[in-house]
Design a protein that fits this description.
- The chain is built from 2 helices and 13 strands, in the order E-E-H-E-E-E-H-E-E-E-E-E-E-E-E.
- By secondary structure, the chain is mainly beta.
- The protein has one domain: Jelly Rolls (Sandwich), CATH 2.60.120.
- A 7-stranded antiparallel beta sheet has the order 1-2-11-8-13-6-3, covered by helices on one side. It has a 4-stranded antiparallel beta sheet with strand order 7-12-9-10, with no helix packed on it.
- Strand 4 and strand 5 form a beta hairpin.
- It starts with a strand and ends with a strand.
- About 35% of the residues are buried.
- Bound molecules: N-(carboxycarbonyl)-S-(3-nitrobenzyl)-L-cysteine and fe (iii) ion.
- The site of fe (iii) ion has 3 residues, from loops.
Length: about 200
Protein backbone atom coordinates (compact mmCIF):
# COMPACT_ATOMS: atom_id res chain seq x y z
CA UNK A 1 0.00 0.00 0.00
CA UNK A 2 1.95 2.96 -1.34
CA UNK A 3 1.22 6.58 -0.66
CA UNK A 4 2.47 9.00 -3.33
CA UNK A 5 3.88 11.85 -1.25
CA UNK A 6 4.67 13.84 -4.38
CA UNK A 7 5.40 12.87 -7.99
CA UNK A 8 8.18 10.28 -7.92
CA UNK A 9 8.23 9.90 -4.12
CA UNK A 10 6.35 6.83 -2.83
CA UNK A 11 6.12 5.69 0.78
CA UNK A 12 5.27 2.08 1.69
CA UNK A 13 4.44 2.08 5.42
CA UNK A 14 5.34 -1.20 7.14
CA UNK A 15 6.49 -2.83 3.90
CA UNK A 16 8.62 -5.14 6.05
CA UNK A 17 6.85 -6.95 8.88
CA UNK A 18 8.61 -7.64 12.18
CA UNK A 19 9.92 -11.05 11.06
CA UNK A 20 11.31 -9.57 7.83
CA UNK A 21 12.92 -6.73 9.80
CA UNK A 22 14.54 -9.22 12.19
CA UNK A 23 15.95 -11.38 9.43
CA UNK A 24 17.25 -8.35 7.53
CA UNK A 25 18.78 -7.02 10.75
CA UNK A 26 20.57 -10.34 11.25
CA UNK A 27 21.89 -10.31 7.67
CA UNK A 28 23.12 -6.73 8.05
CA UNK A 29 24.84 -7.71 11.30
CA UNK A 30 26.77 -10.40 9.38
CA UNK A 31 27.64 -7.94 6.60
CA UNK A 32 28.97 -5.48 9.19
CA UNK A 33 31.15 -8.22 10.66
CA UNK A 34 32.90 -8.53 7.27
CA UNK A 35 32.66 -4.84 6.30
CA UNK A 36 32.71 -2.80 9.54
CA UNK A 37 31.07 0.59 9.85
CA UNK A 38 33.53 3.36 8.97
CA UNK A 39 33.35 7.06 9.74
CA UNK A 40 33.13 9.07 6.52
CA UNK A 41 34.57 12.58 6.44
CA UNK A 42 33.62 15.64 4.44
CA UNK A 43 35.54 16.45 1.28
CA UNK A 44 38.10 19.27 1.78
CA UNK A 45 37.29 20.01 5.47
CA UNK A 46 37.78 16.46 6.75
CA UNK A 47 34.97 16.99 9.28
CA UNK A 48 33.48 13.67 10.41
CA UNK A 49 29.90 12.68 9.58
CA UNK A 50 27.85 11.73 12.64
CA UNK A 51 26.41 8.82 10.62
CA UNK A 52 28.66 5.77 10.27
CA UNK A 53 28.49 3.76 7.08
CA UNK A 54 29.23 0.54 5.28
CA UNK A 55 28.03 -0.97 2.00
CA UNK A 56 27.15 -4.18 0.27
CA UNK A 57 27.03 -4.94 -3.43
CA UNK A 58 29.57 -4.55 -6.26
CA UNK A 59 30.08 -0.86 -5.42
CA UNK A 60 29.97 1.16 -2.22
CA UNK A 61 29.63 4.87 -1.56
CA UNK A 62 32.50 6.43 0.38
CA UNK A 63 33.49 9.97 1.35
CA UNK A 64 36.84 11.31 2.49
CA UNK A 65 38.99 14.41 1.97
CA UNK A 66 39.40 13.47 -1.69
CA UNK A 67 35.64 13.56 -2.35
CA UNK A 68 32.55 11.41 -2.74
CA UNK A 69 32.69 8.34 -4.95
CA UNK A 70 31.60 4.74 -5.50
CA UNK A 71 34.34 2.13 -5.18
CA UNK A 72 34.51 -1.69 -5.13
CA UNK A 73 36.41 -2.03 -1.85
CA UNK A 74 36.11 -1.04 1.80
CA UNK A 75 38.12 2.13 2.55
CA UNK A 76 39.64 0.70 5.74
CA UNK A 77 39.99 -3.06 5.18
CA UNK A 78 40.53 -2.94 1.39
CA UNK A 79 38.20 -5.94 1.04
CA UNK A 80 35.44 -6.17 -1.58
CA UNK A 81 31.98 -5.34 -0.23
CA UNK A 82 29.76 -8.32 0.76
CA UNK A 83 26.85 -9.28 -1.49
CA UNK A 84 23.47 -7.58 -1.26
CA UNK A 85 21.03 -9.86 0.66
CA UNK A 86 18.43 -11.60 -1.51
CA UNK A 87 15.60 -10.04 0.50
CA UNK A 88 16.81 -6.59 -0.60
CA UNK A 89 17.21 -7.66 -4.24
CA UNK A 90 13.61 -8.91 -4.12
CA UNK A 91 12.44 -5.63 -2.60
CA UNK A 92 14.12 -3.76 -5.47
CA UNK A 93 12.68 -6.02 -8.16
CA UNK A 94 9.20 -5.75 -6.60
CA UNK A 95 9.22 -1.97 -6.25
CA UNK A 96 11.85 -0.23 -8.37
CA UNK A 97 10.37 -0.81 -11.86
CA UNK A 98 13.92 -0.94 -13.25
CA UNK A 99 15.24 -3.77 -15.45
CA UNK A 100 18.55 -4.43 -13.67
CA UNK A 101 19.62 -5.24 -10.12
CA UNK A 102 21.04 -2.49 -7.91
CA UNK A 103 24.85 -2.36 -7.98
CA UNK A 104 25.27 -0.56 -4.63
CA UNK A 105 23.62 -0.64 -1.22
CA UNK A 106 24.69 2.00 1.29
CA UNK A 107 24.22 1.08 4.95
CA UNK A 108 23.83 4.11 7.24
CA UNK A 109 23.92 3.63 11.00
CA UNK A 110 22.56 6.47 13.16
CA UNK A 111 23.15 6.39 16.88
CA UNK A 112 20.50 8.35 18.77
CA UNK A 113 22.46 11.61 18.32
CA UNK A 114 23.32 11.28 14.64
CA UNK A 115 21.73 13.28 11.83
CA UNK A 116 22.29 13.97 8.16
CA UNK A 117 22.26 17.44 6.69
CA UNK A 118 20.34 18.36 3.57
CA UNK A 119 21.95 17.09 0.37
CA UNK A 120 21.19 15.64 -3.06
CA UNK A 121 22.25 12.16 -4.21
CA UNK A 122 24.01 12.98 -7.45
CA UNK A 123 27.09 10.72 -7.46
CA UNK A 124 25.32 8.08 -9.56
CA UNK A 125 25.73 7.96 -13.33
CA UNK A 126 22.17 7.18 -14.35
CA UNK A 127 19.32 9.10 -12.76
CA UNK A 128 16.71 7.04 -14.60
CA UNK A 129 17.10 4.41 -11.86
CA UNK A 130 15.29 5.16 -8.60
CA UNK A 131 16.72 4.88 -5.09
CA UNK A 132 14.94 2.44 -2.78
CA UNK A 133 15.39 3.14 0.95
CA UNK A 134 14.46 0.84 3.85
CA UNK A 135 14.46 1.87 7.52
CA UNK A 136 15.19 -0.38 10.51
CA UNK A 137 15.20 0.43 14.22
CA UNK A 138 14.36 3.76 15.80
CA UNK A 139 12.10 6.14 13.91
CA UNK A 140 13.46 9.37 12.46
CA UNK A 141 12.27 12.72 11.19
CA UNK A 142 13.10 12.73 7.48
CA UNK A 143 13.07 16.15 5.77
CA UNK A 144 12.82 16.82 2.06
CA UNK A 145 12.42 19.78 -0.25
CA UNK A 146 12.79 20.60 -3.90
CA UNK A 147 15.66 20.46 -6.36
CA UNK A 148 17.31 23.60 -5.02
CA UNK A 149 18.66 24.26 -1.55
CA UNK A 150 16.75 26.66 0.66
CA UNK A 151 13.19 26.29 -0.61
CA UNK A 152 10.21 25.09 1.41
CA UNK A 153 10.51 21.64 3.01
CA UNK A 154 8.26 18.93 4.44
CA UNK A 155 9.00 16.33 7.09
CA UNK A 156 7.88 12.72 7.48
CA UNK A 157 8.38 10.26 10.30
CA UNK A 158 9.98 7.07 9.00
CA UNK A 159 9.43 3.99 11.17
CA UNK A 160 11.14 0.61 11.22
CA UNK A 161 9.97 -1.42 8.22
CA UNK A 162 9.03 1.57 6.07
CA UNK A 163 10.28 1.70 2.48
CA UNK A 164 10.63 4.91 0.46
CA UNK A 165 11.21 5.14 -3.28
CA UNK A 166 12.69 8.19 -4.97
CA UNK A 167 12.37 8.19 -8.70
CA UNK A 168 11.59 10.38 -11.66
CA UNK A 169 11.02 13.99 -10.64
CA UNK A 170 11.90 13.23 -6.98
CA UNK A 171 15.24 11.63 -7.76
CA UNK A 172 17.33 14.76 -7.20
CA UNK A 173 15.43 16.42 -4.38
CA UNK A 174 17.23 17.76 -1.33
CA UNK A 175 16.74 15.57 1.74
CA UNK A 176 18.20 14.78 5.14
CA UNK A 177 17.53 13.34 8.58
CA UNK A 178 16.75 15.95 11.26
CA UNK A 179 16.89 13.60 14.21
CA UNK A 180 16.43 10.10 15.53
CA UNK A 181 13.49 9.52 17.86
CA UNK A 182 15.10 7.52 20.70
CA UNK A 183 13.31 4.59 22.28
CA UNK A 184 10.86 4.07 19.43
CA UNK A 185 12.02 0.56 18.45
CA UNK A 186 13.37 -2.56 20.12
CA UNK A 187 14.82 -4.01 16.89
CA UNK A 188 18.46 -2.92 17.22
CA UNK A 189 21.02 -3.47 19.93
CA UNK A 190 22.76 -1.09 20.38
CA UNK A 191 19.75 1.17 19.69
CA UNK A 192 19.59 3.63 16.84
CA UNK A 193 18.56 3.47 13.21
CA UNK A 194 19.82 1.68 10.13
CA UNK A 195 18.91 2.97 6.69
CA UNK A 196 19.59 0.86 3.62
CA UNK A 197 19.61 2.55 0.21
CA UNK A 198 19.62 0.45 -2.95
CA UNK A 199 21.06 2.28 -5.94
CA UNK A 200 22.35 2.04 -9.47
CA UNK A 201 25.73 3.78 -9.24
CA UNK A 202 26.87 3.01 -12.82
C1 LIG B 1 18.76 8.08 5.52
N1 LIG B 1 19.95 8.62 3.58
O1 LIG B 1 17.68 7.94 6.05
C2 LIG B 1 18.88 9.06 4.41
C3 LIG B 1 17.63 9.25 3.72
C4 LIG B 1 21.62 8.85 1.87
C5 LIG B 1 20.45 9.37 2.61
O2 LIG B 1 19.99 10.43 2.30
O3 LIG B 1 22.00 9.46 0.88
O4 LIG B 1 22.15 7.82 2.29
S1 LIG B 1 17.04 7.81 2.91
C6 LIG B 1 16.20 8.66 1.67
C7 LIG B 1 16.94 8.94 0.40
C8 LIG B 1 18.04 8.24 0.09
C9 LIG B 1 18.67 8.46 -1.11
C10 LIG B 1 18.17 9.38 -2.01
C11 LIG B 1 17.08 10.09 -1.70
C12 LIG B 1 16.46 9.89 -0.50
N2 LIG B 1 16.62 11.00 -2.63
O5 LIG B 1 17.08 10.98 -3.79
O6 LIG B 1 15.76 11.82 -2.29
O7 LIG B 1 19.78 7.51 5.87
FE1 LIG C 1 20.74 10.96 0.37
Amino acid sequence: TAVEIRPGLRLYKAALDRAAQESLRDEIREILRAAPLFQPTMPRTGKAFSVRMSNCGPLGWVSDRAGYRYQPDHPVTGQPWPAIPDALLRLWSDLADYPEDPDACLINYYDVNAKMGAHQDVDEQDFSAPIVSASLGDSCRFRFGGDTRGGSTQALTLDSGDVLIFGGPARKMFHGVDRILPGTSTLLEPPGRINLTLRRAR
